[in-house]
Hints:
Blueprint: E1 2-8, E2 15-22, H1 35-55
Antiparallel strand pairs: 1-2
Amino acid sequence: TKVEVMALDSMTNEVIAAAQDEKKAEFEDRFSKWGSTEEAFSYWAERIKHLLDLVHGKK
Length: 59
């Protein structure tokens, strides 16, 4: 499962950040139609939240 993310400045439309990543499915996730996708998106959501918290000085 792959993801691409781009963050734009809402005033200038300038690209502030861009990223792409690939998450390999764990062995047991491969047996579920959505298992690996749900796990990958949960992982990326947590990473994005963590990065936004760092930018805003939160831990």
